[in-house]
Amino acid sequence: MITTQAPSASPPRSAGDRRTIARFIPRPEVRERHAVLVHAPAGEMFAAAEAFDPMSIAAVRWIFAARARVLGASAPRRWAHGMAGEMETIGWGLLSLRPGRERVMGAVTRPWEPEPVFTPLPPERFAAFHPPGMVKIAWTIEAERLGPALTRLSTETRAVATDRESRRRFRGYWRRFGVGIVLIRWLLLRAIRRRAEQAARRGEAIWKSK
C-alpha cells in the first residue's frame, strides 16, 4: 500500500489517526505510507529493517546520485551503520521506540538545500516547534506481528513546513524529487522482504544476511 498526500496549506487529519507518528506531526503536508507482507517473524524483520543499507540497492544509489547532480551536492556513499544508525549519525533524533516493533525518528531541516542539515529535537518539543524557514519531518519503521512467521513491515513519512515561504520552497522541491523519494521507500521495503525470505529459505538469520 502506498498513500501519498501532496503538499497543501491545511491538510486534513483523520479523526481515527492514532499512529504514534501522528503525535509529532498531526497535520502533515506530505504523508506517505508503504507496507509489504513478509513471511518472517516480526522481531527479526524489525532488526533486519534497522540494519539494512538502502545504498545496497543500485536504483536507490542512482536516485541519490541524480539529486546530487541536480543540486550540486556531494556524491552518495554507503551507509555503514545501517538505516537506523546512519540516520542518527546525520542528525535525526529518536522520537519514540517500541523495541522490536516500531521506531519513530524526526528532524527539522531545509530539504531543498544541496547539503541539508538535520537537527534533532526532544520528543516533547517536536510537535510545537515552529520557527520560520524550516520543514519538520518524521518517519517510522514498523513491524506488525500478524502471525508467528508473518509480518506487515511498513514505513511512514510525514512532513510539514513552518511558514509560507518554506512551504513554497518545499512544494517546489517535492515537485522535482517527490517521485524519487516515493520510489526509494517502495524499493527499500521490497528489497528487505526479498532478502528476508531468501535467508529464511536458506535457514539463515535474517538480520545477518547480506
Topology record:
Elements: E1 2-5, E2 30-38, H1 42-51, H2 58-71, H3 82-89, E3 93-98, E4 102-109, H4 123-126, E5 135-147, E6 150-161, H5 164-202
Antiparallel strand pairs: 1-2, 2-6, 3-4, 4-5, 5-6
Helix pairs in contact: 2-5
What do these coordinates show?
The chain has helices at 42-51, 58-71, 82-89, 123-126, 164-202; strands spanning 2-5, 30-38, 93-98, 102-109, 135-147, 150-161. By secondary structure, it is α+β, with helices and mostly antiparallel strands. Strands 1-2-6-5-4-3 form a six-stranded antiparallel beta sheet. Helix 2 runs antiparallel to helix 5 (164-202). The longest helix has 39 residues, at 164-202. The model is unreliable at 1-15 (pLDDT under 50).
Entry summary:
By secondary structure, the protein is of the alpha+beta class. Helices cover 36% and strands 25% of the residues.
User: Mind telling me which CATH architecture this is?
Assistant: 2-Layer Sandwich
Number of helices: 5
Into which percent range does the helicity of residues fall?
25-40%
- Portion in beta strands: 15-25%
The structural domain count equals: 1
The 3D shape can be described as: globular
